[in-house]
């Protein structure tokens, strides 16, 4: 087992891995609280401004498997630095006084950084002792989730006092610091590895994911042009099927689909997909509910910044859960932890559905959600990496993060569709019951995730029993 060499860069490695994962997640999430500000600043519609978030998710989903494959090769350090340089350049575009199209280009470049999370895990697994690497990987997974909770209130505060450019300026500052941290601390990959990127496969995957995220973000398309939406959904499925078939035939696949087909890995990805849908439903519901004015008959009329503070319990308890999970895993198998975490997230939905008449109840529900999401995110790498070769760490986890991104996008879309269906004609805001309905949808998603995780636990138990005979 390789260990971190004794030199100054070694002491910076773990903090740098955590910081980079946090920064790329927080910067990618900057689009969420700034949508309204972007619409007013650039004089575009809210649907157009929504693309400042969607395009970051799309570029991240496409870049993740590509970077995961490059990270499995000998040029991982160069890949990390080049990617962070792209993110810094994109951050500069969001700050400069350029037209809206340039802002979208900058947001796309920032989204590429989402692909670095899996590479951070690969570095930890290669260069830290086994016990420390497992805990570090769990925390990297957690901070990649709670980054949204960190970025949201800060972006809201800067947007209120300095405008949208000031909020994006925060992204430029922290990404530049992340680049310097990576330059100072990232080690080279172990020798004897090679990596080949399937460019054609990446393009097909990009097309399929673009249609999936487009359909998830353009909710009005399903209501006004159902036939077009169905055709685009069919094309998306075909492209993803073509990509899967080509990956199975390729000698140098973008993602090792055969490894992904392993029952445990496949089950973990299903749990991540369905769980991601449920988790993001509640995350978007609570912040939207908090900002709804009293005139709607519910809500608290909070500003963007104050509504962002509702995410503080999510981030704090998510981090606490991430620190505790590696210790709990010493006594409880990772799939059982996934199941328990899904139950906790479901509990957050129950709290929101049953009690949301005052702000304290929203804080409690968000704290429960954060603890469940943090535990779930920390346990997930242990499930996948237990059956994954060390050299394929980045690739295997990158696929899991693509699944998570798509699940989050669909969760956001499903929440929006439920609220839209509960909005009466002529009214701007949905009725209060629509939030209860959306919460019930989330409870159903987490119930499916719990059952899937329990099935994984039985599968792991059967494998362990068979190997001990």
UniProtKB/TrEMBL annotation:
<dbReference type="InterPro" id="IPR020846">
    <property type="entry name" value="MFS_dom"/>
</dbReference>
<feature type="transmembrane region" description="Helical">
    <location>
        <begin position="80"/>
        <end position="102"/>
    </location>
</feature>
<feature type="transmembrane region" description="Helical">
    <location>
        <begin position="399"/>
        <end position="422"/>
    </location>
</feature>
<dbReference type="InterPro" id="IPR011701">
    <property type="entry name" value="MFS"/>
</dbReference>
<dbReference type="InterPro" id="IPR036259">
    <property type="entry name" value="MFS_trans_sf"/>
</dbReference>
<feature type="transmembrane region" description="Helical">
    <location>
        <begin position="222"/>
        <end position="243"/>
    </location>
</feature>
<feature type="transmembrane region" description="Helical">
    <location>
        <begin position="136"/>
        <end position="154"/>
    </location>
</feature>
<feature type="transmembrane region" description="Helical">
    <location>
        <begin position="108"/>
        <end position="124"/>
    </location>
</feature>
<keyword id="KW-1133">Transmembrane helix</keyword>
<feature type="transmembrane region" description="Helical">
    <location>
        <begin position="195"/>
        <end position="216"/>
    </location>
</feature>
<keyword id="KW-0472">Membrane</keyword>
<feature type="transmembrane region" description="Helical">
    <location>
        <begin position="434"/>
        <end position="457"/>
    </location>
</feature>
<feature type="transmembrane region" description="Helical">
    <location>
        <begin position="166"/>
        <end position="183"/>
    </location>
</feature>
<keyword id="KW-0813">Transport</keyword>
<feature type="domain" description="Major facilitator superfamily (MFS) profile">
    <location>
        <begin position="10"/>
        <end position="461"/>
    </location>
</feature>
<feature type="transmembrane region" description="Helical">
    <location>
        <begin position="264"/>
        <end position="286"/>
    </location>
</feature>
<feature type="transmembrane region" description="Helical">
    <location>
        <begin position="334"/>
        <end position="356"/>
    </location>
</feature>
<feature type="transmembrane region" description="Helical">
    <location>
        <begin position="48"/>
        <end position="68"/>
    </location>
</feature>
<dbReference type="Pfam" id="PF07690">
    <property type="entry name" value="MFS_1"/>
</dbReference>
<protein>
    <submittedName>
        <fullName>MFS transporter</fullName>
    </submittedName>
</protein>
<feature type="transmembrane region" description="Helical">
    <location>
        <begin position="298"/>
        <end position="322"/>
    </location>
</feature>
<feature type="transmembrane region" description="Helical">
    <location>
        <begin position="362"/>
        <end position="387"/>
    </location>
</feature>
<keyword id="KW-0812">Transmembrane</keyword>
<feature type="transmembrane region" description="Helical">
    <location>
        <begin position="12"/>
        <end position="36"/>
    </location>
</feature>
